[in-house]
Amino acid sequence: MFKRMKPRYKYDNIYAIDTGEMYASGIRGFFFDIDNTMEPYSTPRPGKRLTEWLVGLDSAGFKIGILSNARRERIEHFVSGFPDGLKEKIYYVCDAGKPLKKGFRKLCASAGLEPGQAAMVGDQLFTDILGGNRSGLITILVKPIDPTIEPPFVRFKRFFERPFL
Ligand SMILES: [Mg+2]
Question: Which CATH number covers residue 106?
Fold first, then answer.
C-alpha cells in the first residue's frame, strides 16, 4: 500500500516534466488528470499555454490521454476547447473511477500502449498515483495548480496525503 502511493517522478507542474528523458526511457504517452493538473479546478476550457504544450508533445511523438473521474459532459466540453488537429488525437476516459484499474487499462488499450509505455500525470496520491502504480504505469505527481479552490472532499483527502508527501 505505502509503496503504491509513491510517484516515480515529482514535478512542480506539467510544464516542468522532462519529456526528453521520458522519451528516452521508453514513455510514448502521457495520461493526464484535468482538475488542478492541467488547469485549475473546474476550469471549463483549456488555456493557451496548455494547448501549445500539448501540441509540442504530439509533435514529439507522444500519445495524449485524459483520465478523469469527472463526468462526460465536463470532459467532452474541455476536450472540445482544443484546436482542430489536436482534439481528435486526445484519448479520454470519463468517470474513470481512479484508483480502480479499469480506466487506466481502457485508456492504454485505446491509445495502443502497454502500461509501461504510459505515464500517468496527476496531483492526487489516492487517485492518480495509486491507480497508475497499481496499473503498471509510470507515475508523475505534480503540485495542485490552485489548492485553494478545491471542493471539501478533495481537501479532506489532502489531509490524509500529508504523511506520504
Ligand atoms: Mg486533480
Answer: 3.40.50.1000
